[in-house]
Amino acid sequence: MSATLKPVPDTIEAEVLEIDGGPPPPPEVRNDRSRGQASRSWESLRGKVVRLDRRWWPLWVLLGILAVALLLTVGMVLAVVVAMAKLVGGILRFLTGGSPERSGAGLSRRA
To answer: pLDDT (tens digit, 9 = 90+) per residue, 53-108?
Structure first.
């Protein structure tokens, strides 16, 4: 059952005879002039407001929701860290016998 393997060519060439019942479009030839026109069209967009394609609005809505959720999450984590720091500071102050006026953490100032 030993079969000899035929060598595989390095390149595969194919000629397209028709696409969807019609001939293939002619190949585009890019020259320096068309490249210059493309760069000029990008230059004309500078400083202008570009409207986004309507098909992408679900993506932008999803990304906006994710950004808001991320900001809310970071804010809540920071609030918990600050609350824990104040709680630990209050406990340590209570255990060491310190008063809020001496540490500067009191809200009212007595003269």
So the answer is: 788 889 999 999 999 999 999 999 999 999 999 999 999 998 988 765 555 555 55
Calculate ∠ Cα 75-80-84, nearest 5°: 150
Tokens standing for residue 24: 């293939």
Interatomic CA distance for residues 94 and 90, integer angstroms: 6
Round to whole Å and give the CA distance between 58 and 65: 11
Are 93 and 105 in contact by the 8 Å Cβ rule? The answer is yes
Angle subtended at Cα 85 by Cα 101 and Cα 108, rounded to the nearest 5 degrees:
25
